[in-house]
Design goal:
Blueprint: E1 5-9, H1 14-25, E2 29-34, H2 40-51, E3 57-61, H3 69-74, E4 79-82, H4 96-113, E5 119-123, H5 155-172, E6 181-187, E7 189-191, H6 201-211, E8 221-226, H7 227-239, E9 247-250, E10 253-256, H8 257-268, H9 282-288, H10 293-299, H11 311-315, H12 324-337
Parallel strand pairs: 1-2, 1-4, 2-3, 4-5, 5-6, 6-9, 7-8
Antiparallel strand pairs: 8-10
Helix pairs in contact: 1-7, 4-5, 6-12, 8-12, 9-10
The chain binds NADPH dihydro-nicotinamide-adenine-dinucleotide phosphate.
NADPH dihydro-nicotinamide-adenine-dinucleotide phosphate (NDP) binds at residues 10, 12-16, 34-35, 42, 63-65, 83-87, 101, 105, 123, 125, 160, 187, 189-190, 198, 200-202.
Amino acid sequence: MLYLEVLVTGASGFIAAHVVQQLLQEGYQVRGTVRSLKNPLKVDPLKKLGEATDNRLELVEADLLDADCWTNAVDGCDYVIHTASPFPLSTPSDENEIIKPAVDGTLNVLKACAGKVKRVVLTSSCAAVGIYVNGPDESLSEKDWTDEKHPAAIAYVKSKKLAEKAAWDYQKGLNDEQQFELATINPSLVLGPILTQQGGSSIDLLKRFLSGKDIGLPRICMCICDVRDVARAHVVAMTLPEAAGNRHIVSTGPMWLSEVGGILKEEFGPQGYKPTTRTVPDFTVKIGSWFVSEMKTYKSLLGKYVNYDNTRMREVLKIEPRPLKETICDMGYSLIEEGKVAKSKKYKGKTSS
Ligand code: NDP
């Protein structure tokens, strides 16, 4: 039997591992890139996914900043899902540590795809769509683009906007022989169960909630989506004719951080965890921002509302978003079961379905 082959870049990442799993389950042959094959924490869970599906997963080493490695990585693949990009929780002093691998890395991958593959699905972000809106009646859509000069556009936000823009510009400039189709997936904050032992910003965020160490939460609103829906969106957008040439927001909906804490407290409070639900006054964050660089990011988002229109996700990709309670609780249970958060004495595990 001849399987269609898909390259997934950054295969050991939080989102990519779910993409790899769904592709394998759908019968594809998958080649995944990792920066090092020598890290068992990142590689072993992927190998298990491959072993469970007739060894249809091959892993190869590739770095975004090494332009030469991508020709071999792409060779023989019908499709490419490009998820690899730096996603740190805090911003480094030199923004180019994030922006350069995101933009140059995306172009390195796309140049290797020219004239070779049918379609590339690029993992962009809602960060490339917009940062906040004026009130609960407004939402951002695929027509919107973040202004990277906006005061709230931290290096990560810039990296996602500039990398996605570079990808569209590059693809539009290709001649007929070099052409491939391009589609982007633009997720909001992605939460949900983990498949690998890797760290990652989404994982660190929920771990921090469950640790109960924070005295309070800034008054920040975030749009959230489920990692299983995000992975599904990549797999569907890879072959769906209507997806080519389009951006696709994947978002379930908005929530204040205190509401996320509330969901975790209701579920995990009786099981010995103390997630924070208390909102700290805005002035504490403003004062904190003088001393802690992370708080500078929070300061510009205080009290701001955000929402993204998920019509294309539901009507074109035909993905109905999972309820946020399920996403958040499943992630909490998975972090505890996988040893990322210590099991408390009162821990009972997931009882409801
Ligand atoms: P992870 O940090 O778990 O995964 C990022 C992946 O990118 C890792 O596999 C990492 O490899 C790889 N990577 C980073 N730098 C390089 C490099 N220089 N060369 C090769 N690979 C590199 O993050 P997520 O899974 O959360 O993010 C995946 C994608 O989704 C990113 O593009 C991110 O911007 C996007 N996204 C994520 C959201 C979220 O809330 N999680 C929301 C919206 C978009 P290594 O394991 O070697 O470090």
